Structures are given as structure tokens and as C-alpha cells.
């Protein structure tokens, strides 16, 4: 919710301040939002309605189905975004035409993509480690302020999403609303899976 309402809303607001209308490619954003919503429904909502185990949990057979299904959806989306319909995710002009030119990087080589994937995994471990390190201080601050314990999770989520939020708002300020929305929806994947 922080991503889909907060970061996307902020991106659209900032993008529309300059031109009065935020211009983006609806096909790409719609595909990303539909996939995130499907994976979130599969992994966060569906366990609430299953009755095979007490509480909002999947049983082992259900988990054996849900985890690969989420990975397949993610894989199909990434293939669509990087190969099949790459233009859907590139910035567009006010008339809706894809901006072609030197502003876009060429698709990476397989080696560069695998290196980036490894570095992304390493960065994810670092972010989770930092969140675990900072969480006791946030928790004590929340308790001292007399706030509900759920505020701790929200504060940590906001902290983890801060780099994506800053990158998305900077992109929106440069009239790259599509890039901004791509960043926002890309940051929703860890929360929905």
C-alpha cells in the first residue's frame, strides 16, 4: 500500500505539477500493476481464505503451488518488460510516443545482467540486515511515544523504501513519469511476494 498509493501517487503528483498532466504508458504501468496485484492477492490475501491450517497461513501443498506460481508470474513479467514489450516501459512524450535516443541504455549483455542480479541480491541482504539492526531503536521510540506496535513495521517499510521513493520523485521531476512509476512498482515486488 505504501508503494502503490504512496510512491505512485507522489510520482503522479510531482509529474503533473509541471505539465498539469502526468504522461506515462498505460500498457506498461497497467501490466506491472496487474502483476503486482495478482502476486499480492496470491501471497497476502489468499491465505486468509484457506482453511487447511489455522490462521492466515498456507499449508505445505498450497505453498508448493503458490511460491512457484508467484515466481512464474514474476518471470513472465520480467521477460515482457525486458524483451517482448520493452517499449511499454520506456518514457513517453506528451503525445504518447516512446522517447527513443541516447537517453536509454541498450539491453545489458547476459554477463552484465547476471552480475547485476548478484549485486541486487547482495544489496537486498544488506538492506534487510540494516532494517533488523535499526528496528530495536525504532521499536523503543514507538513504545516511548505510546504508539501502536504496527507503527514499527510502517516505519521500517518507509525506511527501506526511501531510496526508491527518492529515485522515483527525482525521475518525476525530470518529466520521466514512466520511469518513476516503473521504480515505484518495482519496489512493490518484495512486499507482494
Features:
single chain; 193 residues; mainly alpha; 7 helices; 0% strand; globular
Question: Quick summary of this structure?
Answer:
The chain has 193 residues and is mainly α. The chain has helices spanning 2-19, 26-49, 60-84, 110-145, 150-173, 177-186, 189-192. The relative contact order is 0.19.
Give the SSE layout.
Blueprint: H1 2-19, H2 26-49, H3 60-84, H4 110-145, H5 150-173, H6 177-186, H7 189-192
Work out the radius of gyration.
Answer: 19 Å
How many distinct helices?
7
The helix/strand order is HHHHHHH
Overall geometry comes to: globular
Instruction: Provide the β-strand percentage band.
Output: under 5%
Mean pLDDT: 87
Q: State the low-pLDDT regions, or none.
A: none
Tally of structural domains: 1
**Sheet/helix structural class:** mainly alpha
Sheet with the most strands? Answer: none
Tell me the span between the first and last alpha carbons. 13 Å
Residue share in helix? over 70%
Q: Number of DSSP strands?
A: 0
Overview of this protein structure:
It is a single chain. The protein is mainly α and 193 residues long. The protein has one domain (2-192). The chain has seven helices and no strands. It has helices at 2-19, 26-49, 60-84, 110-145, 150-173, 177-186, 189-192. It is globular. The relative contact order is 0.19. Pfam families: Na_Ca_ex. The chain crosses the membrane at residues 21-46, 58-79, 112-131, 143-162. Residues 116-188 form the Sodium/calcium exchanger membrane region domain. Keywords: Membrane, Transmembrane, Transmembrane helix. It is found in: Membrane.
